[in-house]
Amino acid sequence: MLLSNKRASVAATLGHLGIVRLIERFGRKPGLVSLVYHRVGEPAREPFYRPLISATPAVFERQMRRVRDAFRVIRLEELESGGLLDDSGQLHLTEPTALITFDDGYRDNLTLAAPILQSLQLPATLFVTTGFVGERRLLPWWDRVAYAVQASPRSEITVDQPLAATLSLTGDRSHAVQRLINAFIARGWSADEAELQELETRTGIDLELRDALVDQLFLGRGELEQWVACGFSIGAHTQSHRRLAGLAESELDLELAGARAQLELWLNNRKVASVAYPYGGPDAFDDRTKQAAAWAGYRLGFVLDPHQTRPGDSNDRWALPRFAVGPADSAALLRARLALACWLNRSPL
Ligand SMILES: [Zn+2]
Protein backbone atom coordinates (compact mmCIF):
# COMPACT_ATOMS: atom_id res chain seq x y z
CA MET A 1 0.00 0.00 0.00
CA LEU A 2 2.91 2.31 0.76
CA LEU A 3 4.33 1.67 -2.69
CA SER A 4 0.94 2.51 -4.24
CA ASN A 5 0.82 5.81 -2.33
CA LYS A 6 4.28 6.63 -3.62
CA ARG A 7 3.26 5.83 -7.19
CA ALA A 8 0.17 8.01 -6.77
CA SER A 9 2.20 10.95 -5.49
CA VAL A 10 4.78 10.59 -8.31
CA ALA A 11 1.87 10.62 -10.79
CA ALA A 12 0.28 13.66 -9.13
CA THR A 13 3.61 15.53 -9.25
CA LEU A 14 4.17 14.66 -12.92
CA GLY A 15 0.64 15.82 -13.67
CA HIS A 16 1.09 19.03 -11.70
CA LEU A 17 4.26 19.89 -13.62
CA GLY A 18 2.49 19.28 -16.93
CA ILE A 19 4.86 16.40 -17.71
CA VAL A 20 2.05 13.89 -18.21
CA ARG A 21 0.50 16.20 -20.83
CA LEU A 22 3.85 16.43 -22.64
CA ILE A 23 4.30 12.66 -22.56
CA GLU A 24 0.75 12.26 -23.88
CA ARG A 25 1.51 14.60 -26.79
CA PHE A 26 4.80 12.94 -27.79
CA GLY A 27 3.70 9.40 -26.93
CA ARG A 28 0.64 9.50 -29.20
CA LYS A 29 1.33 6.47 -31.38
CA PRO A 30 -0.94 3.85 -32.89
CA GLY A 31 -1.24 0.90 -30.52
CA LEU A 32 -3.67 -1.03 -28.38
CA VAL A 33 -4.02 -0.71 -24.61
CA SER A 34 -6.48 -3.12 -23.00
CA LEU A 35 -7.65 -2.28 -19.49
CA VAL A 36 -8.87 -4.87 -16.98
CA TYR A 37 -11.30 -3.99 -14.21
CA HIS A 38 -12.94 -6.38 -11.77
CA ARG A 39 -15.48 -4.46 -9.75
CA VAL A 40 -16.76 -0.90 -9.40
CA GLY A 41 -18.13 0.06 -5.98
CA GLU A 42 -17.56 1.50 -2.52
CA PRO A 43 -14.92 -0.59 -0.69
CA ALA A 44 -15.82 0.69 2.80
CA ARG A 45 -19.22 -1.02 2.67
CA GLU A 46 -18.03 -4.18 0.93
CA PRO A 47 -18.45 -7.52 2.78
CA PHE A 48 -16.43 -9.49 0.18
CA TYR A 49 -12.82 -9.07 -1.04
CA ARG A 50 -12.31 -5.31 -1.19
CA PRO A 51 -9.11 -5.07 -3.29
CA LEU A 52 -11.10 -6.44 -6.26
CA ILE A 53 -12.99 -3.16 -6.31
CA SER A 54 -10.89 -1.53 -9.01
CA ALA A 55 -12.50 1.90 -8.64
CA THR A 56 -15.35 3.77 -6.99
CA PRO A 57 -18.04 4.94 -9.43
CA ALA A 58 -16.71 8.54 -9.21
CA VAL A 59 -13.10 7.51 -9.96
CA PHE A 60 -14.26 5.12 -12.69
CA GLU A 61 -16.15 7.92 -14.42
CA ARG A 62 -13.07 10.20 -14.33
CA GLN A 63 -10.89 7.38 -15.66
CA MET A 64 -13.34 6.65 -18.48
CA ARG A 65 -13.52 10.32 -19.50
CA ARG A 66 -9.73 10.30 -19.79
CA VAL A 67 -9.75 7.06 -21.82
CA ARG A 68 -12.45 8.48 -24.11
CA ASP A 69 -10.43 11.66 -24.71
CA ALA A 70 -7.10 9.91 -25.35
CA PHE A 71 -8.10 6.76 -27.28
CA ARG A 72 -10.43 5.37 -29.87
CA VAL A 73 -12.24 2.77 -27.76
CA ILE A 74 -13.11 -0.33 -29.77
CA ARG A 75 -15.53 -3.20 -29.34
CA LEU A 76 -14.09 -6.68 -28.79
CA GLU A 77 -15.72 -7.84 -32.02
CA GLU A 78 -13.52 -5.42 -34.01
CA LEU A 79 -10.49 -7.43 -32.84
CA GLU A 80 -12.19 -10.81 -33.18
CA SER A 81 -13.27 -10.22 -36.77
CA GLY A 82 -9.63 -10.07 -37.85
CA GLY A 83 -9.90 -6.57 -39.32
CA LEU A 84 -7.69 -4.92 -36.70
CA LEU A 85 -5.62 -7.97 -35.76
CA ASP A 86 -4.87 -10.51 -38.48
CA ASP A 87 -4.05 -14.21 -38.14
CA SER A 88 -0.31 -13.53 -38.17
CA GLY A 89 -0.66 -11.24 -35.14
CA GLN A 90 -0.23 -7.97 -37.04
CA LEU A 91 -2.23 -5.04 -35.68
CA HIS A 92 -3.80 -2.70 -38.20
CA LEU A 93 -4.36 0.48 -36.21
CA THR A 94 -3.72 4.08 -37.14
CA GLU A 95 -4.38 5.75 -33.79
CA PRO A 96 -4.09 5.13 -30.04
CA THR A 97 -6.74 2.53 -29.32
CA ALA A 98 -8.18 1.05 -26.12
CA LEU A 99 -10.28 -1.92 -25.11
CA ILE A 100 -12.16 -1.75 -21.78
CA THR A 101 -12.69 -5.12 -20.07
CA PHE A 102 -14.09 -6.54 -16.83
CA ASP A 103 -13.28 -10.00 -15.46
CA ASP A 104 -15.31 -12.59 -13.53
CA GLY A 105 -18.92 -11.39 -13.88
CA TYR A 106 -19.64 -9.21 -10.83
CA ARG A 107 -23.08 -7.63 -10.78
CA ASP A 108 -21.80 -4.09 -10.18
CA ASN A 109 -20.39 -4.17 -13.71
CA LEU A 110 -23.99 -3.88 -14.91
CA THR A 111 -25.50 -1.81 -12.11
CA LEU A 112 -22.69 0.74 -11.55
CA ALA A 113 -20.20 0.63 -14.45
CA ALA A 114 -22.58 0.15 -17.38
CA PRO A 115 -24.58 3.39 -16.83
CA ILE A 116 -21.31 5.38 -16.77
CA LEU A 117 -20.03 3.65 -19.90
CA GLN A 118 -23.34 4.23 -21.67
CA SER A 119 -23.45 7.90 -20.74
CA LEU A 120 -19.97 8.29 -22.28
CA GLN A 121 -20.89 6.04 -25.24
CA LEU A 122 -18.01 3.69 -24.52
CA PRO A 123 -18.09 -0.01 -25.42
CA ALA A 124 -16.87 -2.64 -22.93
CA THR A 125 -16.35 -6.39 -22.64
CA LEU A 126 -17.16 -8.75 -19.79
CA PHE A 127 -15.12 -11.96 -19.44
CA VAL A 128 -17.48 -14.27 -17.58
CA THR A 129 -16.66 -17.21 -15.32
CA THR A 130 -19.74 -19.31 -15.98
CA GLY A 131 -19.65 -21.02 -12.58
CA PHE A 132 -20.09 -17.66 -10.83
CA VAL A 133 -23.18 -16.81 -12.87
CA GLY A 134 -26.53 -18.54 -12.97
CA GLU A 135 -28.52 -20.59 -10.51
CA ARG A 136 -26.01 -22.76 -8.66
CA ARG A 137 -23.22 -20.31 -8.03
CA LEU A 138 -19.68 -20.99 -7.02
CA LEU A 139 -18.39 -18.34 -4.63
CA PRO A 140 -14.75 -17.57 -5.48
CA TRP A 141 -12.25 -18.58 -2.81
CA TRP A 142 -10.97 -14.98 -2.40
CA ASP A 143 -14.48 -13.72 -1.57
CA ARG A 144 -15.10 -16.66 0.82
CA VAL A 145 -11.85 -15.94 2.68
CA ALA A 146 -12.49 -12.19 2.88
CA TYR A 147 -16.10 -12.59 4.01
CA ALA A 148 -15.18 -15.11 6.71
CA VAL A 149 -12.56 -12.79 8.22
CA GLN A 150 -14.53 -9.56 7.83
CA ALA A 151 -17.85 -10.94 9.17
CA SER A 152 -16.41 -13.01 12.03
CA PRO A 153 -17.86 -12.24 15.49
CA ARG A 154 -14.50 -13.29 17.04
CA SER A 155 -11.65 -11.01 18.07
CA GLU A 156 -8.96 -13.42 16.86
CA ILE A 157 -8.73 -16.68 14.94
CA THR A 158 -6.09 -19.38 14.77
CA VAL A 159 -5.52 -21.07 11.42
CA ASP A 160 -3.31 -23.97 10.28
CA GLN A 161 -3.85 -23.66 6.53
CA PRO A 162 -2.62 -22.16 4.24
CA LEU A 163 -0.36 -20.73 6.97
CA ALA A 164 -0.09 -21.42 10.69
CA ALA A 165 -0.95 -18.19 12.51
CA THR A 166 -3.16 -16.47 15.05
CA LEU A 167 -4.77 -13.48 13.34
CA SER A 168 -6.03 -10.53 15.33
CA LEU A 169 -9.47 -9.34 14.22
CA THR A 170 -9.60 -6.20 16.34
CA GLY A 171 -9.64 -2.99 14.31
CA ASP A 172 -8.99 -3.03 10.57
CA ARG A 173 -9.18 -6.63 9.33
CA SER A 174 -7.83 -6.01 5.83
CA HIS A 175 -4.33 -7.05 6.92
CA ALA A 176 -5.58 -10.43 8.19
CA VAL A 177 -7.58 -10.94 4.97
CA GLN A 178 -4.55 -10.14 2.83
CA ARG A 179 -2.23 -12.46 4.80
CA LEU A 180 -4.55 -15.38 4.11
CA ILE A 181 -5.13 -14.43 0.48
CA ASN A 182 -1.37 -14.05 -0.12
CA ALA A 183 -0.73 -17.46 1.43
CA PHE A 184 -3.31 -19.09 -0.85
CA ILE A 185 -1.82 -17.28 -3.86
CA ALA A 186 1.71 -18.41 -2.95
CA ARG A 187 0.46 -21.97 -2.73
CA GLY A 188 -0.89 -21.94 -6.30
CA TRP A 189 -3.85 -19.53 -6.53
CA SER A 190 -6.38 -21.91 -5.06
CA ALA A 191 -8.07 -23.02 -1.85
CA ASP A 192 -9.59 -26.45 -1.16
CA GLU A 193 -13.23 -26.77 -0.19
CA ALA A 194 -12.25 -28.45 3.11
CA GLU A 195 -9.87 -25.61 4.00
CA LEU A 196 -12.50 -22.99 3.29
CA GLN A 197 -15.10 -24.83 5.37
CA GLU A 198 -12.59 -25.08 8.23
CA LEU A 199 -11.94 -21.34 8.04
CA GLU A 200 -15.68 -20.64 8.04
CA THR A 201 -16.09 -22.82 11.15
CA ARG A 202 -13.22 -21.15 12.98
CA THR A 203 -14.43 -17.65 12.13
CA GLY A 204 -17.95 -18.60 13.29
CA ILE A 205 -19.77 -16.77 10.49
CA ASP A 206 -23.48 -17.05 9.70
CA LEU A 207 -23.49 -18.89 6.36
CA GLU A 208 -27.17 -18.20 5.63
CA LEU A 209 -26.58 -14.48 5.95
CA ARG A 210 -23.58 -14.76 3.64
CA ASP A 211 -25.41 -16.80 1.02
CA ALA A 212 -28.19 -14.19 0.88
CA LEU A 213 -25.50 -11.60 0.03
CA VAL A 214 -23.87 -13.88 -2.57
CA ASP A 215 -27.09 -13.83 -4.57
CA GLN A 216 -26.45 -10.13 -5.19
CA LEU A 217 -22.72 -10.45 -5.90
CA PHE A 218 -22.68 -11.84 -9.45
CA LEU A 219 -24.79 -11.33 -12.53
CA GLY A 220 -27.61 -13.74 -13.21
CA ARG A 221 -28.35 -15.12 -16.67
CA GLY A 222 -31.00 -12.51 -17.36
CA GLU A 223 -28.54 -9.78 -16.41
CA LEU A 224 -25.97 -11.19 -18.84
CA GLU A 225 -28.61 -10.69 -21.53
CA GLN A 226 -29.12 -7.13 -20.28
CA TRP A 227 -25.37 -6.53 -20.57
CA VAL A 228 -25.49 -7.66 -24.20
CA ALA A 229 -28.66 -5.62 -24.83
CA CYS A 230 -26.69 -2.52 -23.72
CA GLY A 231 -24.47 -3.16 -26.76
CA PHE A 232 -21.58 -4.56 -24.70
CA SER A 233 -19.54 -7.66 -25.51
CA ILE A 234 -18.95 -11.00 -23.81
CA GLY A 235 -15.90 -13.24 -23.63
CA ALA A 236 -15.20 -16.32 -21.54
CA HIS A 237 -13.19 -16.53 -18.33
CA THR A 238 -13.49 -20.33 -17.94
CA GLN A 239 -16.00 -22.38 -16.02
CA SER A 240 -14.57 -22.35 -12.49
CA HIS A 241 -11.65 -19.87 -12.51
CA ARG A 242 -8.90 -22.44 -12.04
CA ARG A 243 -5.33 -21.67 -12.97
CA LEU A 244 -5.08 -23.28 -16.41
CA ALA A 245 -1.31 -23.92 -16.57
CA GLY A 246 -0.61 -27.58 -15.95
CA LEU A 247 -4.23 -28.81 -16.10
CA ALA A 248 -4.94 -32.16 -17.79
CA GLU A 249 -6.42 -32.06 -21.29
CA SER A 250 -9.88 -33.13 -20.13
CA GLU A 251 -9.91 -30.39 -17.47
CA LEU A 252 -8.76 -27.78 -19.99
CA ASP A 253 -11.54 -28.89 -22.29
CA LEU A 254 -14.13 -28.49 -19.54
CA GLU A 255 -12.83 -25.06 -18.52
CA LEU A 256 -12.44 -23.66 -22.05
CA ALA A 257 -14.85 -25.46 -24.39
CA GLY A 258 -17.34 -25.92 -21.55
CA ALA A 259 -17.46 -22.21 -20.71
CA ARG A 260 -17.81 -21.23 -24.35
CA ALA A 261 -20.66 -23.69 -24.98
CA GLN A 262 -22.46 -22.57 -21.81
CA LEU A 263 -22.20 -18.88 -22.66
CA GLU A 264 -23.35 -19.41 -26.24
CA LEU A 265 -26.32 -21.40 -24.95
CA TRP A 266 -27.25 -18.66 -22.47
CA LEU A 267 -26.86 -15.97 -25.12
CA ASN A 268 -29.01 -17.62 -27.79
CA ASN A 269 -26.05 -18.80 -29.90
CA ARG A 270 -24.25 -15.49 -29.92
CA LYS A 271 -20.63 -16.30 -30.84
CA VAL A 272 -18.09 -16.21 -28.01
CA ALA A 273 -14.65 -15.95 -29.62
CA SER A 274 -12.34 -14.65 -26.87
CA VAL A 275 -11.09 -16.02 -23.58
CA ALA A 276 -9.21 -14.32 -20.73
CA TYR A 277 -7.13 -16.83 -18.77
CA PRO A 278 -7.84 -16.64 -15.00
CA TYR A 279 -5.18 -14.81 -12.94
CA GLY A 280 -3.55 -14.00 -16.29
CA GLY A 281 0.10 -13.69 -15.24
CA PRO A 282 3.04 -15.62 -16.77
CA ASP A 283 2.45 -18.63 -14.48
CA ALA A 284 -1.30 -18.73 -15.22
CA PHE A 285 -1.11 -20.21 -18.72
CA ASP A 286 1.32 -22.05 -20.99
CA ASP A 287 1.55 -23.26 -24.59
CA ARG A 288 -0.88 -26.11 -23.87
CA THR A 289 -3.41 -23.58 -22.57
CA LYS A 290 -3.17 -21.58 -25.80
CA GLN A 291 -3.47 -24.76 -27.90
CA ALA A 292 -6.52 -25.85 -25.90
CA ALA A 293 -8.10 -22.41 -26.40
CA ALA A 294 -7.67 -22.79 -30.17
CA TRP A 295 -9.18 -26.30 -30.09
CA ALA A 296 -12.08 -25.01 -28.00
CA GLY A 297 -13.01 -22.67 -30.85
CA TYR A 298 -11.78 -19.32 -29.58
CA ARG A 299 -9.97 -16.85 -31.79
CA LEU A 300 -8.23 -14.68 -29.17
CA GLY A 301 -6.69 -15.25 -25.72
CA PHE A 302 -5.98 -12.46 -23.22
CA VAL A 303 -3.40 -12.35 -20.41
CA LEU A 304 -2.23 -9.80 -17.84
CA ASP A 305 0.83 -7.87 -18.96
CA PRO A 306 1.40 -4.10 -18.77
CA HIS A 307 2.73 -3.83 -22.34
CA GLN A 308 0.98 -2.06 -25.13
CA THR A 309 0.60 -3.89 -28.45
CA ARG A 310 1.69 -1.97 -31.52
CA PRO A 311 1.48 -2.26 -35.28
CA GLY A 312 4.72 -3.82 -36.49
CA ASP A 313 5.10 -5.99 -33.37
CA SER A 314 4.54 -9.64 -33.88
CA ASN A 315 1.72 -10.18 -31.43
CA ASP A 316 0.63 -13.55 -30.11
CA ARG A 317 -3.14 -13.54 -30.53
CA TRP A 318 -3.33 -16.27 -27.87
CA ALA A 319 -1.61 -14.03 -25.28
CA LEU A 320 -2.80 -10.48 -25.89
CA PRO A 321 -1.66 -8.19 -23.06
CA ARG A 322 -4.08 -6.44 -20.75
CA PHE A 323 -3.24 -3.78 -18.19
CA ALA A 324 -4.74 -4.26 -14.67
CA VAL A 325 -6.44 -1.26 -13.06
CA GLY A 326 -6.52 -1.47 -9.26
CA PRO A 327 -7.81 0.48 -6.27
CA ALA A 328 -4.55 2.49 -6.05
CA ASP A 329 -5.16 3.90 -9.53
CA SER A 330 -6.55 7.35 -8.91
CA ALA A 331 -7.65 9.03 -12.14
CA ALA A 332 -4.29 10.92 -12.13
CA LEU A 333 -2.22 7.77 -11.61
CA LEU A 334 -4.06 5.86 -14.32
CA ARG A 335 -3.62 8.81 -16.67
CA ALA A 336 0.15 8.82 -16.00
CA ARG A 337 0.39 5.03 -16.38
CA LEU A 338 -1.46 5.14 -19.71
CA ALA A 339 0.68 8.03 -21.00
CA LEU A 340 3.89 6.18 -20.06
CA ALA A 341 2.60 2.90 -21.52
CA CYS A 342 1.93 4.64 -24.85
CA TRP A 343 5.28 6.44 -24.84
CA LEU A 344 7.57 3.65 -23.60
CA ASN A 345 5.40 0.66 -24.58
CA ARG A 346 5.28 -0.25 -20.88
CA SER A 347 4.43 1.75 -17.77
CA PRO A 348 7.14 1.80 -15.07
CA LEU A 349 4.54 3.14 -12.59
ZN1 LIG B 1 -10.70 -13.53 -12.89
The CATH architecture classification of the largest domain is Alpha-Beta Barrel
> What structural class should be given to the helix and strand makeup?
alpha/beta
Bound molecules: zinc ion
Detail the poorly predicted runs: none
Tell me the series of helices and strands, N- to C-terminal. HHEEEHEHEHEHEEHHHHEHEHEEH
What does the overall shape look like?
globular
What do these coordinates show?
The chain has 349 residues and is of the alpha/beta class. The protein folds into two domains: 2-137 and 220-344, Glycoside hydrolase/deacetylase (TIM Barrel), CATH 3.20.20; 141-214, no CATH class. The protein has helices at residues 2-16, 19-26, 57-70, 76-80, 108-119, 141-151, 174-186, 193-203, 207-214, 221-229, 249-266, 287-295, 331-344, and strands at 31-37, 39-40, 53-55, 72-73, 96-104, 125-128, 156-159, 165-168, 233-236, 274-276, 300-302, 323-324. The strands form four sheets. Strands 1, 4, 5, 6, 9 and 12 form a six-stranded parallel β-sheet that branches. α1 packs across α13. The longest helix has 18 residues, at 249-266. The model has no long low-confidence stretch (mean pLDDT 91). The structure holds zinc ion. Zinc ion binds next to β5.
